[in-house]
């Protein structure tokens, strides 16, 4: 049953936060949402759910481009659970009827998005990498990879509102925050709902043990690293970038990295934002496991190394010199203390 | 009913095994067909022709439903020198009419269909299961097989080993010796995609008709072997195979040789614009009659490639496989009637094979490979001689034809003396004639 | 097209249990001919720092290596359902 | 305990390409396989069965050939199999798919529903949450481990894997879990189970059995439409760069926007 499309207006972003900290994907979506809202000449809003200090975050949402922040502050929203967050966001969307609703394609965004779209009886396009407004209509064109990245598809939700997307993190650009931006904060009450799950434990492991498959930055080493000791150089770069260390089959066979860190056909398939391939020649077994990385930086002394055929940046040189150079320059840019 | 007891177990769902299972099932036997591949055909490679006669006896009028690529209406033979070819071709309307002579197929599709037919007739197909060994009773008779799965025993009074050239099963059973590098060929092949109309044009084909090209000479660098190009609907099967001991001794890599063959000035234009879709490699049992293993023992029969039943010279294998599979089945059907699965009773299989083209042909060509290996000039010098002769004879340059003939004869004698030519002709007739 | 790229076109259901194993690597070190390096149609065997490395994942299960090196190679088929899976054949 | 496992038949996506001429999907020779994530969900269901005892029912929606994935499930140890097949189901997006599946699952009234995290063809991760929402099941996505299942108390404790680390959640049954690949290693079928699967004739349910609103099923009931497909831009190797400080600085500057300035959990 198509919804009455004209009742819906505005672009809205679900502001993902955990433990009083806004996820960077939310700022990226505000940046993209701003563009879409300007094209449609409608306001951009954010849905901010949480407890306790949540109000303090509203200003940041506005500074990043929102005109309105819908906010619910409730102790039941302390931890993310589907039932609580679904109830809260549903109430806001039903009341304020945005025509576009964006969420991050994160575990939280995808958990909530699927539930929310079902309840709203509308379409949801997952893991988008491109958004645009169709000329002539107000429809949202949502572009996403499918079939493991072998094809791209553009998807539209023409007869239902809101048009919902989850958007892959670190594809969109956040705006430079402007603390002087003005916006409205509208507070809502938490509706009654049935709480079916509770979080009983959470262990923060970002730095120590981000699993390889989910890592956004991977610094991987192969035979050219030359020994377990030299992996320290790779680890240092990984630490600076908040990434993890991986290895080719040769590195794993030699015991330089644990087998669980092996990338490739018999190891893990990874799709990080940036993949550093240090001293990896690029045997096909390895390429299969990493070639869909967004950016590949390959460092190898051999000009003919097959890895260079898939690399975004093909650096011919000794990794023992090049990797520390990267570490030093990134540190400088990131303001990491020496 | 006990789940793991059958009237017969067939190991390997290729042409031999599937034929055996189908024929047995058709006559009402409860037969298990065990295949290790992901799906039937997923492990199977051949140049790409099936021969109608043998298949038609198993699935009458198969061409009405089998996933065939093209009907082979023309057979071409090329003799290549470094940059030239002499071509012999035979085309006849007989080949292009049912029941046809041969058809090109892609095994992944064909075998799936063929196994489907066996299932239709009542064969019990067990997929994705590797048979590792035979099970014997206390008298040493084979009464079943052990698979690579938990609780993996299957029982039947008779087992057909149709598990292909490597036949690890008959080795495990202890009566197939390890193959020697002289007795197998290693072939590599590529599936090259090409639009249909381009194939029609390049190969001069009508409608659903196709052709096969066997290529001898320069491309095998003196190794005993042959190249081939077969036309499929929208792909070509292109490959080259040589005796394994030659690959070893000539220190040649198959993947290099197929590239060189594809880049031969005569071959290259036919492949222009094609896209490689798949790369394959397989062994072909070329040992012939002299290298055939024992085919029968108590409760055990060997069929198809596992029994070395390939006529390499004529590029035949799938037909021998199907016929041997069928004969194994007929033998087992008889054995079931008698309730006797002893080697003596099952030796009917051997007699059937002996009386058929299978053994007759294999016997006829028993010495052909040894002959080629001892007479490599046939693979190197001769293609060069005939190409030179053809070039000379067909060049219009004002030289009288009789003088040309003399010149050809003289240059031929330079490469091989008269006595050598006469000897070659005689011994070749003995080996192949 | 290079062999590596061709093998990439093939479909494999990779088993995490290797089906090819060199029995005694020291025999390979002393092997003069090293036929496995050039006859294997899938280049499963490569020499690195004097050692033979076996990339069983790319094996097409033809059996060539088994025949030319029957003494020092433990050669099995992959478990049923695994290994090369030709789409055309 | 009754556990329903949803299994989708998918093309082995590594082989799916776009024909540059016709701009359609090339699926010739592309084999169909059970969605790998779903197999890990099945394995988890079987492990729960091994530990607590359960009836595991595999459900797949698709064309008649989808029976293959149900056979696979039975070969690994599923007790029953149901194939949802009907032309009106065809062409469904995730919304319409979860409508049909939820309709079938409602008839089975399970304690647990298990799905893979996502299917490898669509990668949407939406059908699981869709089913849970429609049936009012507790939704537990990104599960890597189950710690306790107590049917009497109607409680399950699982470990979910979030970006920042593992989270343990206690939830009320009935619940729906979506499972990650790293949750387990898939077992290798025993021969008796394999033979059982070969003989399997699954229950086949069409919409006459389900009695769902045809306007909400299949293509017709799908809010989203694919308006265009195209090949992703080809990845081409960059040209070779020398390892000078100047070049590396250039690369770092281009990479900077991709890098998080902070990499920690706020606690």
From TrEMBL, chain A:
Residues 11-199 form the Electron transfer flavoprotein alpha/beta-subunit N-terminal domain. FAD binds at residues 248-249, 262-266, 279-286, 300. The keyword Flavoprotein applies. InterPro entries: DHS-like_NAD/FAD-binding_dom (IPR029035), ETF_a/b_N (IPR014730), ETF_a/FixB (IPR001308), ETF_alpha_N (IPR033947), ETF_asu_C (IPR014731), Rossmann-like_a/b/a_fold (IPR014729). GO terms for molecular function: electron transfer activity; flavin adenine dinucleotide binding. Binds 1 FAD per dimer. Transmembrane segments: none annotated. It comes from the Bacteria. Belongs to the ETF alpha-subunit/FixB family. This is Electron transfer flavoprotein subunit alpha.
UniProtKB/TrEMBL annotation, chain B:
Residues 219-282 form the ETF-QO/FixC ubiquinone-binding domain. Residues 371-432 form the FixC-like C-terminal domain. One of its GO terms (molecular function) is oxidoreductase activity. Its cofactor is FAD. It holds the Pfam family ETF-QO_FixC_C. Keywords: FAD, Flavoprotein, Oxidoreductase. Belongs to the ETF-QO/FixC family. This is Nitrogen fixation protein FixC.
Automatic annotation (TrEMBL), chain C:
PROSITE patterns: 4FE4S_FER_2 (PS51379). The keyword Metal-binding applies. GO terms for molecular function: iron ion binding; iron-sulfur cluster binding. It comes from the Bacteria. Coiled coil: none annotated. InterPro entries: 4Fe4S_Fe-S-bd (IPR017896), ETF-QO/FixX_C (IPR007859), Fd_FixX (IPR012206). The keyword Calcium does not apply. To ferredoxins from P.putida and C.tartarivorum, ferredoxin I from A.vinelandii, ferredoxin II from D.desulfuricans. Could be a 3Fe-4S cluster-containing protein. This is Ferredoxin-like protein.
UniProtKB/TrEMBL annotation, chain D:
InterPro entries: ET-Flavoprotein_bsu_CS (IPR000049), ETF_a/b_N (IPR014730), ETF_b (IPR012255), ETF_beta_N (IPR033948), Rossmann-like_a/b/a_fold (IPR014729). Transmembrane segments: none annotated. PROSITE patterns: ETF_BETA (PS01065). Residues 22-214 form the Electron transfer flavoprotein alpha/beta-subunit N-terminal domain. Its cofactor is AMP. GO terms for molecular function: electron transfer activity. PANTHER family: ELECTRON TRANSFER FLAVOPROTEIN BETA-SUBUNIT, PROTEIN FIXA. Belongs to the ETF beta-subunit/FixA family. This is Electron transfer flavoprotein small subunit.
């Amino acid at each position: 049953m198509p919804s009455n499309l004209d009742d819906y207006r505005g672009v809205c972003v679900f502001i993902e936060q955990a433990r009083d900290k806004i996820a960077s994907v939310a700022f990226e979506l505000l940046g993209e949402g701003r563009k879409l809202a300007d094209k449609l000449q409608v306001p951009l809003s954010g849905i901010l759910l949480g407890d306790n200090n949540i109000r303090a975050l509203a200003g940041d949402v506005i500074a990043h481009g929102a005109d309105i922040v819908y906010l619910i502050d409730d102790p039941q929203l302390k931890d993310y659970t589907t039932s609580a967050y679904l109830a809260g966001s549903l109430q806001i969307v039903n009341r304020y009827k945005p025509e576009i609703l964006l969420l991050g394609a994160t575990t939280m965004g995808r958990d909530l998005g699927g539930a929310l779209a079902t309840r709203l009886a509308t379409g949801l396009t997952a893991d988008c990498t491109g958004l645009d407004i169709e000329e002539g209509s107000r429809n949202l064109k949502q572009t996403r990879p499918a079939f493991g990245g072998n094809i791209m598809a553009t998807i539209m939700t023409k007869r239902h509102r809101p048009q919902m997307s989850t958007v892959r993190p670190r594809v969109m650009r956040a705006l430079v925050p402007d603390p002087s931006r003005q916006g409205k904060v509208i507070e809502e009450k938490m509706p009654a709902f049935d709480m079916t799950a509770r979080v009983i434990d959470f262990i923060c492991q970002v730095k120590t043990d981000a699993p390889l498959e989910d890592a956004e930055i991977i610094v991987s080493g192969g035979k050219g690293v030359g020994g377990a000791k030299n992996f320290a150089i790779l680890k240092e770069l990984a630490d600076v970038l908040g990434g993890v260390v991986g290895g080719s089959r040769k590195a794993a066979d030699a015991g330089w990295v644990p087998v669980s860190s092996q990338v490739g056909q018999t190891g893990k398939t990874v799709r990080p934002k940036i993949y550093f391939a240090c001293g990896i020649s690029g045997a096909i077994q390895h390429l299969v496991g990493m070639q869909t990385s967004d950016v590949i930086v390959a460092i190898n002394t051999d000009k003919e190394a097959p890895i260079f055929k898939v690399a975004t940046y093909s650096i011919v040189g000794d990794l023992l010199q090049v990797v520390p150079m990267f570490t030093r320059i990134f540190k400088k840019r990131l303001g990491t203390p020496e | 009913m006990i789940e793991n007891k059958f009237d017969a177990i067939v190991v390997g769902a290729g042409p031999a095994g599937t034929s055996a299972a189908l024929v047995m099932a058709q006559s009402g036997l409860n037969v298990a067909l065990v295949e290790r591949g992901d799906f039937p055909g997923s492990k199977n490679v051949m140049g790409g022709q099936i021969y109608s006669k043998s298949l038609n006896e198993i699935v009458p009028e198969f061409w009405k439903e089998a996933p065939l690529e093209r009907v082979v209406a023309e057979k071409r033979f090329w003799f290549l020198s470094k940059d030239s070819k002499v071509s012999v071709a035979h085309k006849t309307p007989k080949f292009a009419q049912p029941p046809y002579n041969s058809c090109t197929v892609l095994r992944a599709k064909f075998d799936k269909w063929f196994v489907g037919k066996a299932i239709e007739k009542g064969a019990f197909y067990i997929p994705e299961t590797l048979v590792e060994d035979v099970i014997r009773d206390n008298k040493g008779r084979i009464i079943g097989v052990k698979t690579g799965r938990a609780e993996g025993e299957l029982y039947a009074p008779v087992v057909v080993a149709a598990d292909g050239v490597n036949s690890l099963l008959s080795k495990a059973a202890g009566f197939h010796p390890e193959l020697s590098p002289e007795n197998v060929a290693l072939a590599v092949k590529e599936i090259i995609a090409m639009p249909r109309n381009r194939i029609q044009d390049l190969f001069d084909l009508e409608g659903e008709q196709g052709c096969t090209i066997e290529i001898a000479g320069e491309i095998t660098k003196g190794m005993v072997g042959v190249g081939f190009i077969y036309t499929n609907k929208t792909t070509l099967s292109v490959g080259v195979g040589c005796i394994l001991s030659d690959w070893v001794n000539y220190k040649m890599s198959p993947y290099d040789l197929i590239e060189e063959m594809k880049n031969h000035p005569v071959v290259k234009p036919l492949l222009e614009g094609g896209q490689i879709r798949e790369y394959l490699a397989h062994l072909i049992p070329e040992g012939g009659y002299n290298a055939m293993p024992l085919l029968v023992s108590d409760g055990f029969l060997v069929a198809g490639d596992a029994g070395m039943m390939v006529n390499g010279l004529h590029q035949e294998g799938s037909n021998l496989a199907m016929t041997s599979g069928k004969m194994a089945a007929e033998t087992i059907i008889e054995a079931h009637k008698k309730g006797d699965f002893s080697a003596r009773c099952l030796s009917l299989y051997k007699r059937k094979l002996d009386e058929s083209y299978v053994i007759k042909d294999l016997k006829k060509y028993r010495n052909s490979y040894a002959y080629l290996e001892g007479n490599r000039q046939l693979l190197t010098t001769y293609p060069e001689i005939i190409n030179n002769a053809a070039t000379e004879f067909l060049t219009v340059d004002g030289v009288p034809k009789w003088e040309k003939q003399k010149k050809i004869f003289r240059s031929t004698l330079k490469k091989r003396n008269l006595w050598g030519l006469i000897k070659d002709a005689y011994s070749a007739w003995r080996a192949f004639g | 097209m290079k062999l590596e790229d061709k093998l990439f076109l093939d479909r494999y259901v990779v088993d995490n249990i290797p089906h090819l194993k060199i029995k005694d690597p020291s025999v390979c070190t002393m092997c003069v001919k090293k036929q496995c390096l050039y006859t294997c149609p899938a280049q499963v065997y490569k020499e690195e720092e004097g050692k033979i490395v076996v990339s069983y994942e790319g094996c097409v299960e033809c059996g060539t290596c088994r025949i030319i090196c029957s003494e020092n190679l433990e050669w099995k088929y992959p478990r049923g359902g695994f290994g090369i899976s030709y789409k055309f054949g | 305990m009754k556990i329903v496992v949803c299994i989708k038949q998918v093309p082995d996506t590594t082989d799916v390409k776009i024909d540059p001429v016709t701009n359609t999907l090339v699926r010739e020779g592309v084999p169909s396989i059970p969605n790998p994530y779903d197999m890990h969900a099945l394995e988890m269901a079987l492990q729960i069965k091994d530990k607590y005892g359960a009836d595991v029912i595999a459900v797949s929606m698709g064309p008649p050939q989808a029976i293959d994935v149900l056979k696979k499930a039975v070969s690994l140890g599923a007790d029953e199999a149901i194939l949802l097949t009907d032309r009106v189901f065809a062409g469904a997006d995730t919304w319409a798919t979860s409508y049909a599946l939820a309709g079938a699952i409602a008839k089975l009234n399970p304690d647990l529903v298990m799905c893979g995290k996502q299917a490898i063809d669509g990668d949407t991760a939406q059908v699981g949450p869709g089913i849970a929402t429609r049936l009012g099941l507790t939704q537990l996505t990104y599960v890597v481990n189950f710690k306790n299942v107590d049917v009497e108390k109607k409680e399950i404790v699982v470990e979910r894997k979030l970006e920042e680390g593992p989270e343990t959640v206690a939830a009320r049954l009935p619940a729906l879990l979506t499972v990650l690949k790293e949750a387990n290693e898939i077992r290798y079928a025993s021969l008796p189970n394999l033979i059982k699967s070969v003989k399997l004739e699954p229950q086949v349910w069409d919409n006459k059995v389900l009695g769902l609103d045809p306007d909400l099923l299949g293509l017709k009931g799908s809010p989203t439409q694919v308006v265009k497909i195209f090949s992703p831009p080809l990845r081409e190797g960059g040209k070779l760069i020398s390892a000078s400080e100047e070049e590396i600085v250039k690369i770092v500057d281009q990479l900077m926007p991709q890098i998080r300035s902070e990499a920690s959990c706020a606690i």
